[in-house]
Amino acid sequence: MSIEEGRTLYKGKQAVVLGLAKSGAAVARTLKACGAVVTVNDKKPENECEEAELLRKEGISVICGGHPDDIVNPDVDIVIKNPGIPYTVAPIQKAESLGIPVVTEVEIAYELSDAPLIGITGSNGKTTTTTLIGRMLEEGGLAPIVAGNIGTPLSEQALQAKTNQVLVAELSSFQLKGTRKFRPVIACLLNVYDAHLDYHKTKEDYVHSKSKLFMNQDESNVAVLNYDNEICRNLAEEIRSQILWFSVTEEVEQGAFLRDGAIVFKRSLSGTLADKLDKSPEEEVVVRLEELALPGAHNVENMLAAICVARASGADMEALRHVLRTFSGVEHRLEFVDEINGVKYYNDSKATNPEAASRALDSFSAPIVWIGGGLDRGIDFHELVPLLRRHVKAVITYGQTAEKLLARAEDAGIIRTKRVDTVIDAVAEAKSIAREGDIVLLSPACASWDMYKSFEERGVLFKQSVHKLKTSP
């Protein structure tokens, strides 16, 4: 959509953006370009609002240091909230009482973009799958723009994306909860496990937020779902779009699955989506499992999902094969860091819940020195015990959940345990424990926010500490 067309939607509208993070600054600029009167409000003090002065120079009002009582008033037309801000804060409560729409920036991006949009969500695997899809579409000559929760705010691309491009968006439950008309042409739900319940309060709200990805789809669209996940199967009953399944346990009627050590894609799509694949056979062997460059059994699921999305987008099979044979992973997702004295170090800092950590632990046959810990969200971690018993020789913990994880290590019969203060200390401790042939794995099973600003910061510190081992005595 051009700026001129955007003006027909938002020219003269009063917009309040809550939260001056990257996405807040992006959507504020986008709305300003469309002629809206924009006010950005952040509860952080002025000296912590890095973009405030720059936005003011661009003609955008910025208020830091708290939420004024009148920041939301009857003259406001729309409120755009940072995804992480809870709905219980006063400005959002007031907006809802006044009947003012409260959305996240992905809703604005959807409204303004002319490019078709592919949405990917799930409790685990979003970034790897989104990156895979982007690579497959690029290899297939389909001009993807990868954005959303993966790094670049979706609204930053909204006015620039052309009709011959495609927006490939990683989406969180926080972002999806704040959507109304949002409708991707292809919507992919990887899995749903207990996560972010401190924000959503109930599992029902979490599942409902994820399912909003499909809410406005119709039979001309495609939903890609995990057949092996019970919640995904149950949601299928409410979905009106065409469904492509992926499964590592069953041969599905249409979608991607495993057979005799190979990935197979089977399709019987109708309408315009079938037209994109009209020259391809209904069933094709994609690659054999031994050809895959990306380690980890859980990543096979991500690849199956990416294949479904890429094929429904019209990417040719050779493009998919090339990516699957060469793509070795994403930073902070089971990322190989280095091998030192016969010990391999892996950074899986993005594993912010027990399910993700379980998948990482189950990816290796060699003995593991496991580093875990972080923000306490009230989880007991009992599901990790069988994985710890089967794969782990030593446990190093830190952060708010350290004592819980030490208790789970004891449940698993692991004698070698240690509590440390930081990830840096954990690497030093791991060096003293690990022996040739072992794996040192940072896969925290927890969010980072008790000690670090993000999982990225935590992962970078881990990697820096590992690299320093080569120069230390």
Characterize the structure shown:
This protein is of the alpha/beta class and 473 residues long. The protein has 3 domains: 3-102, Rossmann fold (3-Layer(aba) Sandwich), CATH 3.40.50; 107-326, 3-Layer(aba) Sandwich (UDP-N-acetylmuramoyl-L-alanine:D-glutamate ligase); 335-468, Mur ligase, C-terminal domain (Protein-Tyrosine Phosphatase, Chain A), CATH 3.90.190.20. The protein has 19 helices and 20 strands. The strands form 3 sheets. The protein has a 9-stranded mixed β-sheet with strand order 7-8-6-9-10-11-12-13-14. Strands 15-16-20-17-18-19 form a 6-stranded mixed β-sheet, sandwiched between helices. A 5-stranded parallel β-sheet has the order 3-2-1-4-5. A hairpin with a 2-residue loop joins strand 15 and strand 16. The radius of gyration is 23 Å and the shape is globular. The protein starts with a helix and ends in a 5-residue tail after the last helix. The model has no long low-confidence stretch (mean pLDDT 91). Residues 332-446 form the Mur ligase C-terminal domain.
Number of helices: 19
The structure class reads alpha/beta
Biggest sheet: strand arrangement? 7-8-6-9-10-11-12-13-14
Question: What composes the largest sheet?
Answer: 9 strands, mixed
Question: Layout of helices and strands, plus pairs?
Answer:
Layout: H1 3-10, E1 14-18, H2 22-33, E2 37-42, H3 52-57, E3 61-64, E4 78-81, H4 90-98, E5 102-103, H5 105-112, E6 117-121, H6 126-139, E7 144-148, H7 154-157, E8 166-170, H8 173-177, E9 186-189, H9 197-200, H10 203-211, E10 222-226, H11 230-235, E11 242-247, E12 255-259, E13 262-266, H12 271-276, E14 283-288, H13 297-313, H14 317-326, E15 335-340, E16 343-347, H15 354-361, E17 368-373, H16 385-391, E18 392-398, H17 402-411, E19 416-419, H18 423-433, E20 439-442, H19 455-468
Parallel strand pairs: 1-2, 1-4, 2-3, 4-5, 6-8, 6-9, 7-8, 9-10, 10-11, 11-12, 16-20, 17-18, 17-20, 18-19
Antiparallel strand pairs: 12-13, 13-14, 15-16
